[in-house]
Amino acid sequence: AKMAAAAASELLTGWCLFGLALLAILVFCWVYVRKYQSRRESEVISTITAIFALAVALISSALLPVDIFLVSYMKNQNGTFKEWADANVSRQIEDTVLYGYYTLYSIILFCVFLWIPFVYFYYEEKEEDDGNTCSQVKTALKYTLGFITVCAVLLLIGAFVPLDIPNKKNSTEWEKVKLLFEEFGSSHGLTALSFSISSLTVIGMLAAITYTAYGMSALPLNLIKGTTSAAYERLENTEDIEEVEQHLLRIKSKCRDGRPLSSRDRRAVQQLEERLRTLRRRERHLESIEKSWWTKFCEAIRPLKIVWGVFFIIVALLFTVSLFLSNLDKAMHSTGFDSGFIILGTNLTNPLNMLLPVLQTVFPLDYVLITTIVMYFIFTSMAGIRNMGIWFFWIRLYKIRRGKTQPQALLFLCMILLLIVLHTSYMIYSLAPQYVMYGSQKYLVQSSKLLNYYPVNWNQLAFVCSGLIGTAFLSDQCIVTRTYLFLHKFWFFSAAYYFGNWAFIAVFVIGLIVSCCKGKKSVIEGEVDEDDSDTSDDELSVYY
């Protein structure tokens, strides 16, 4: 009874913490979306969609630490299962985590292939045609049908393509079809969902290479270098205004005697007037920033920003060095391309692999580190998207600007973050494969079978679960995380992730060099563009 009460108390505490974390995530998503969305073009449906999709991305990123914690929590440090963690309870916990993956990954598929595309095309039709709502919904559904078709094709491929091809040459066509349905039924749809999620994860890998790798270098260095002084920029801007005005006067003086301006001069006058409007908008922004209390507060916490920048760059270097050593280990000791560069055990250690076992001795420092890395990955992705904007190859589609971001851009931002979150789990697995597979689990040696493989100290019976030991000898004592099952259903996806890790490292190094060579950012970086209207300055007081 006491054990049941203690377990119930722990469960209640866990649910309370989960509720508080969920509330904090929703509040953050609401503040983030409201901070960047355009007040003049905001729509209720796009706002709700962006907040929900961003919340799903952040909640999904918490799956990995929770999964690792649960498989580790069922065992003691000496390798034995806890009294309450019998076979049925362990199976229930595994099923609960698996259902959590089913739910969140299904929601991600729903958002990526149905909800976000529908809202995006609905808003596009609303901008082009102010007709009735029925025609807008029909047009949006027509375009969304293409995304639904792609999702259906991915699910069908994952569901009915067998992972193990039978060797029987004399099997009939009906037996082959029967085998497909038997595999689908035995996996309970796991393979179909895994294939669809892995396909999206490859796209998320490309987004991570583009945005996250750059954000990991740009965010820390921007915090360290800071921005230019608003007063100094305002002085330079005033000089530019005077120079443009004088140039305009010189051109217009040519027509004082009644002669019309040439076409070349008229084009120059038009360009100079547009340039003058932009400079005057910059003047208003700089004046507002110079007088704002937020600027004074940022100047006061400037030393704290430098400390955070140094901390972030250390984390980025730790992450990159660990990823490089892990990939190098796979290149030298993995089972090859045909297996997706799967590696059994660790031959070349890396800083993160060395740090996690040390932190495991003090609960819950290892989970804090994993959660920190996951959240750091998410926030650097946000920083990379914010700094670069949203691109389609060499064409810039949208800019992410405070208070001026279009609803379509916010929807793209949330979809990209959803895809990057899917890739986060594999990135963490690349850094610490043994830890992601088994957490801090240990097992007991019950026979002398391992004596031929390891020099065993028989007074110490507890061994850390690893890829080789867990699969070859004691799979019943080492519980694999559900994350690992989703990651390695298909070898060709693992091979793509392996080469993607090398590309990620290369982009990070290039981004770090570029960020070091660049000077300080403008205090109104990205806030004023030539295509802005004068009415866009009406909301300055909201931010400055």
UniProtKB/TrEMBL annotation:
Residues 262-289 form a coiled coil. This is Lysosomal cobalamin transport escort protein LMBD1. It comes from Thinocorus orbignyianus. GO terms for biological process: protein localization to lysosome. It is a multi-pass membrane protein. PANTHER family: LYSOSOMAL COBALAMIN TRANSPORT ESCORT PROTEIN LMBD1, LYSOSOMAL COBALAMIN TRANSPORTER-RELATED. Keywords: Cobalamin, Cobalt, Coiled coil, Lysosome, Membrane, Transmembrane, Transmembrane helix, Transport. Belongs to the LIMR family. LMBRD1 subfamily. Its main location: membrane.
